[in-house]
Amino acid sequence: MAAVAALYPEFKALDVEVLSISTDSRFVHKIWQAEELSKMVDGGVPFPMLSDGGGRIGTAYGVYDDAAGVDIRGRFIIDPDFVVRAMEVLTPEVGRNPAELLRQVKAFQHVVKTGEVTPSGWEPGDITLTPGPDLVGKVWEVWKP
Amino acid sequence: MSKLKDGCVKPVVGPIMEETEGSSSASPGIIQEVKKMVAKVGKEAIDFEASAFVAGEGFKPVRLSDYKGKWIVICFYPGDFTYV
Lengths: 145, 84
Hints:
The complex is a heterodimer. Helix content of chain A is 36%, strand content 19%. Chain A has a domain at 2-94: Glutaredoxin. By secondary structure, chain A is an alpha+beta fold. Chain A has helices spanning 2-6, 8-13, 26-40, 56-60, 98-114, 139-142, and strands at residues 16-22, 49-51, 64-65, 70-71, 73-78, 84-90. Chain B is mainly β. Chain B has a domain at 44-75. Chain B is built from no helices and 4 strands. Chain B has strands spanning 14-16, 47-54, 58-63, 71-76. A 3-stranded antiparallel sheet of chain B has the order 1-2-3, with no helix packed on it.
């Protein structure tokens, strides 16, 4: 969570609202912030830390492990029309890559704005593709991995 | 900053889902087959409300749909004070 918090200024610059959520209570979130997160990131976690006691929200998002009683690691990107654009769910041992999350947000914002599509690994400034009959079989001419 | 009221135990709204159509006619006592709604890409996000800790504000309920119209990232994780 601290890793996402560290990139928060970049999310904010893209006008992205970040929410974190676990089955811990709001009380535990507060103390985690005070005892640990604030020592990892300047000012601690700046976004709301939500409590999913009972795992009902995690269940609705397909990330609740009812044997363990916790939400596993899952992140979702939701667009301004309230449509889920992306999800990544990991078993908890491996942390996420917030830089990739940021890249995906930028790519989704770009495709929504322009109607273009972004090839694999696209970063702002890279070539984009405009889908259409002329491009079929010709992608190789304009883009290679 | 006005102090937000809080208590030891507070009910929360949780997921906000529309009732599944056609399930209301089942007889009482029979466990109904409730269509499980799970988030999917390309589909509308499932709204929810949860209690939250917000730095500088304290405790307050947060509803996902309050952020409608903006890009939102939700990060689930297994627990505070864990290792990763």
